[in-house]
Design brief:
A: mainly beta, six-stranded mixed beta sheet, five-stranded antiparallel beta sheet, globular, B: seven-stranded mixed beta sheet, four-stranded antiparallel beta sheet, 48% strand
Chain lengths: 113, 116
């Protein structure tokens, strides 16, 4: 069985500061890992994904994430927060190339001026 | 490519009524998924289609819920005898085994259901 834990349901960052969102997963097989962003009353937009190969993956809007197998983690970072980054972020895992994604509970990001 | 579309975007109904939602996936995406998202939670998987075949269903999909994808293109999700606990955002996603071997799913804007 696969599962995802996102540490911190709410994160507040100052504009220009580092954004760090934590995600830990469990999977019985090498996982595919995803970060999605959701703006109010909208669907989910894919930020980035880890499949195989390079463990540091870059996504849209300046976000990146690092896959650490030994720590079963896939934390999301952005060096400098922008007001437009205020949204909810979801980490998701899949243990195969089809079928359901297992999502974490999400982290709400607030960006303060 | 216009993305995944869902209709309606919002639905308000009274308890006990039936509702039906529609999802149009990205054209030529052969895989289609339904998820449910309640306030403050991540999306929860409901069901999955490959072409017209429904290959996986969650235990969340009670006998009041039914999903179809008759021609392997659009899909419908019907909830019969709605209950207040059905109030949620219903999200549809699609993917293609041709363009992505890694289960990359593209989501629609969702249908928000409110059961009074």
């Amino acid at each position: 069985a696969q599962s995802v834990t996102q540490l911190g349901s709410h994160v507040s960052v100052s504009e220009g500061a580092l954004v760090l969102l934590r995600c830990n997963y469990s999977s019985s097989v090498p996982p595919y890992l995803f970060w999605y962003v959701q703006y109010p009353n909208q669907g989910l937009q894919l930020l980035l994904k880890y499949t195989t190969g390079a463990t540091l993956v870059k996504g849209i809007n300046g976000f990146e994430a690092e896959f650490k197998k030994s720590e079963t983690s896939f934390h999301l970072t952005k060096p400098s927060a922008h007001m437009s980054d205020a949204a909810e972020y979801f980490c998701a895992v899949s243990d195969r190339s089809w079928g359901k994604l297992q999502f974490g509970a999400g982290t709400q990001v607030v960006v303060t001026p | 490519d216009t993305g995944v579309s869902q209709d309606p975007r919002h639905k308000i109904t009274k308890r006990g009524q039936n509702v039906t939602f529609r999802c149009d996936p990205i054209s030529e995406h052969n895989r289609l998924y339904w998820y449910r998202q309640t306030l403050g939670q991540g999306p929860e998987f409901l069901t999955y289609f490959q072409n017209e075949a429904q290959l996986e269903k969650s235990r969340l999909l009670s006998d009041r819920f039914s999903a179809e994808r008759p021609k392997g293109s659009f899909s419908t999700l019907e909830i019969q005898r709605t209950e207040q606990g059905d109030s949620a955002m219903y999200l549809c996603a699609s993917s293609s085994h041709v363009t992505s071997a890694y289960n990359e799913q593209f989501f629609g804007p969702g249908t928000r259901l409110t059961v009074l």
